[in-house]
Amino acid sequence: MALPTPPLPPDAPRPPAHPTSAMSLLAALLDRSLHQMAEAAADARLFDRETIRAASDVWDNNLFPLFWAASTSDAGERERRATTVLRWMAAFGERRRGWMAEQAAIAGYDVEAHLPPAAPHPPGRDHLGHVMAPQHRITPRTVDELAPDYDLASATVRYVRVERAGTRLTAFLQLVVGRTFAVDAPAPPALLGVWLDDVTAVAFDLADAQGVVLTAGPGRTDVFLGPNGRLRAAGGEYRLDDRSWHLSAAGRRADAVTPPRTPRPGRPSGPPGGEPGPDARAAAVLLHHSMLELRSVRYAARADRVPVRTLCRAFSGAGAAILAAGSRRGTRHREAAFRDLIRTWADQGGPNAARWFSAVLEERAGRPDIIETSSPPDRPSPSIPSSTSAPPSHLGTTAATVLPPAPETAPRAALLMASWTAAHLDHRTERHATAQLQFALPPHGRDPSQAWRVRTVECVEPNSFHLRTEAFRGPGPFTRTGIPGSARTLDLHQGALLVTTTNGWSTPRS
Fold it and tell me: What is the model's pTM?
């Protein structure tokens, strides 16, 4: 008798199980994004900020095309539109196409059946025609390629961040590296960005901010910092941010084989689509604006103010619902279905979300009539988050400007993220050294049924910054000591994280 087949993990890719409908696949990708974000925020102790950022970012230029594709009762036309949108989405690069393939497989679809063969992405050129440094996986060969052009031994750490991503750790470093080649004129410093996946060892102190050794081997990447610092990971990537890279030996080799700068062949200049009806557009505006709110978690200072779980609950099943509403016969019935859908989202989100949705619809779509609320929104005039600055929050509660008073021994806490930035010049502006920490804190009061919450704090000019792997081992003893005007200390897991400052701690303003 044959043994039963064990069930697949919830997020394991599955063989295609659904008919190869481009529109159903497009709707499923939206629902997968919402599911990913909901899972990433379900437990604050395993908060995964990068998953939320990446999943919401997919829909910046693709949400209105999805509504356009769905908004027709002609099945053939709907499939043609959806195929166009899928190809537009996949043209954003290897990472986007890989995400689409992975999430489609989990939902039981084969996205490759709707896409042309993948084309290589050669190094690009900037607006001056200079070849730009590509991003590389860290391997022995790519590490060796850095040595002739950049002096890592004298490099300094400008920024280091170690962060929890669910059950894993990730890290990012920005290093100021010296060039070994001549440049034509004074140039901004060359910066080397290093991304590390599945980090297994962390050791960093302020004394470790100068001198870097980068090594790679099978299943292992090590970054040695200063006399005692180290980050070890399963793998990683690096990229140079250097306007003069085209003058390096590697840049000259790339320049010789990189075609001149021209628009990418076959790629439209803008996203596909047309203008939907007013109610379909209102639904698209509301969901798009909410995706931007979700995406703002990319600013660590915003992560504890974005109500990820509320928004994901409100829009649960949005992909399938948009397809159902858009497929209705007749413009009048289709528009009524989109109005009902907006009200369903408001009901699923709850009263506070409904008030915010009403404000967004009034401000962004000119439709204050769709959702009736009994009181004005908590925050007026919501604005689209900026790509260059952290936007104001409209759904989360306002955090205090300073940490509240605490006893000598504070409750347990779990470290989600720790970062340190060196003092430096940024476009001729002096930036102070800063430390930023993100914690999961227990519920207020003694009710164990309440959820843990995310809290971000920072300080300027820290006197010490001590970080070890053990700081990320989950909830542990968390203490704050000191009084204003003297050294103040945050200590987690008995010194695994130890940061002192004479300037006090605050919640970052956004």
Answer: 0.86
